[in-house]
Amino acid sequence: MGAQKQFFGTDGIRGVVNQPPMTTTIAHAAGVALVEWLRSCKAPLRVVIGRDTRRSGPMLEAAFAAGAAAMGAEISLVGVLPTPAVAWLTCAEGAGAGVMISASHNPYQDNGIKIFDAQGHKLSDEAEIRLESAMQRVLTGEMIFPNAESIGEIRAEQGASERFVTHLRSAWTLGRRLSGVRVVVDAANGAAFWVGPALFEALGAEVVALHDQPNGRNINEGCGSLAPHILRDAVRLHRAQVGLALDGDADRLIVVDETGAVLDGDHLMMMAAIHLSRRGALGGEVLVTTVMSNLGLERALKKHGIRMERTPVGDRYVSERMRALGATLGGEQSGHLIFSEYSTTGDGLLAALQILALMISEDRPLSSLAAELEPFPQILRNFPVREKRPWQDIPALRLAVASAEAELGAEGRVLIRYSGTENKLRIMVEGPSWDLIERLVDKLQQAFETELGLA
């Protein structure tokens, strides 16, 4: 890719609050850099800023907004909203960029900055590199600021949550409402704590709301998409037809069916792809997903003549590939689903609407719809590392990976990658049996520990 990025990772800037890169100083520099970039692109100097429910959100929002306003941008603060709401509002209001202050599924001690362009798409690697260059000039005192007459204004925008619920309701195209459907919604004490339950109640569902009382510190804490067992128990207790688990910024969705079985993004993408294909609405007859999706998904889709295209991990890479292929559906195993007819980025609430509409139109319970996917056994292990050395340059590791791949043949996969936000190595092995993949993961772990000296 050329230049190495210092601040931006897989999904924007992210880290522990008050430690680089997640400090108010760096957030201010990012605000300055964004507006300089907008000016160079001749984009509108208007920025929409939203946040999730973290205690540090208003602090980082203020720092970013101050930097952007100092460079002459008009700032709209839309308050606590899901990430996809910020992307949508950016387009709807003709802004040059949208910014979400959130660390997604991470604990409250972390926070992050996600940036969308005027079309509601996450920034490209090239754009992030340009922003980093400008940020360095801010941090070293080399940036030239406009005079006092040219600064922008920071304003709080009212009613954004209600507007987003109205937008999502427009994606509900079935002729009937959700009357008689009981839905459990776990909002993860995050950005969708109000809009999530409000959306499904507005469509007539009987809603049981969980973890909808954020206090700044309880976001993602033993709840939401990272703790689906909580949702599973609630679905069984309330005899609901479906359970919906969101993460802190509501850009991902994990579902629990009426039996209590947990359905991840692979299950949801399979159901949606087959349904869209039958309606002639699956663009290119292709599903775009990442290298993490299970081989079982690929095989289930193949039976229906649907091709699967893989990208690196990160929903922005999925989105970029979707646009290149003209695809209408893409996503990640982790629960990011992109329905391009309605959204430019992963949207947990929109995905939930599509899954509910599918269930009703097919007149089948989710357990029946999901049964077509038979996942291959898959193990993912994460290891801390001292440095992210290219493992492909180490002969012993190339040999270890090649040996594991040869043993799996066409019945499995090995994936080795570094985390985009942490100093961790991830080893994923997928194959026909648990015994085989456990043995291969153990061998690979030993080889990597020996060669890389894991921390």
Level-1 CATH class name of the largest domain: Alpha Beta
What percent strand?
15-25%
Shape: globular
Report how far the terminal alpha carbons are from each other.
Answer: 27 Å
Keywords:
single chain, 455 residues, alpha/beta, Alpha-D-Glucose-1,6-Bisphosphate, Chain A, domain 3, TATA-Binding Protein, 7-stranded mixed β-sheet, 5-stranded mixed β-sheet, 19 strands
Please give a quick description of this structure:
This protein has helices at residues 24-40, 57-70, 83-92, 125-139, 160-169, 195-202, 228-238, 265-278, 295-302, 315-325, 348-362, 366-370, 395-408, 434-452, and strands spanning 8-9, 12-16, 46-51, 74-80, 97-101, 110-117, 154-156, 182-186, 206-210, 242-246, 253-256, 262-263, 286-290, 307-311, 329-331, 337-339, 378-384, 413-418, 424-430. The protein has 455 residues and is of the alpha/beta class.
Task: Please render the helix and strand layout as text.
Layout: E1 8-9, E2 12-16, H1 24-40, E3 46-51, H2 57-70, E4 74-80, H3 83-92, E5 97-101, E6 110-117, H4 125-139, E7 154-156, H5 160-169, E8 182-186, H6 195-202, E9 206-210, H7 228-238, E10 242-246, E11 253-256, E12 262-263, H8 265-278, E13 286-290, H9 295-302, E14 307-311, H10 315-325, E15 329-331, E16 337-339, H11 348-362, H12 366-370, E17 378-384, H13 395-408, E18 413-418, E19 424-430, H14 434-452
Parallel strand pairs: 3-4, 3-5, 4-7, 8-9, 8-10, 13-14
Antiparallel strand pairs: 1-2, 2-6, 5-6, 10-11, 11-12, 15-16, 17-19, 18-19
Helix pairs in contact: 1-2, 1-4, 5-6, 8-11, 13-14
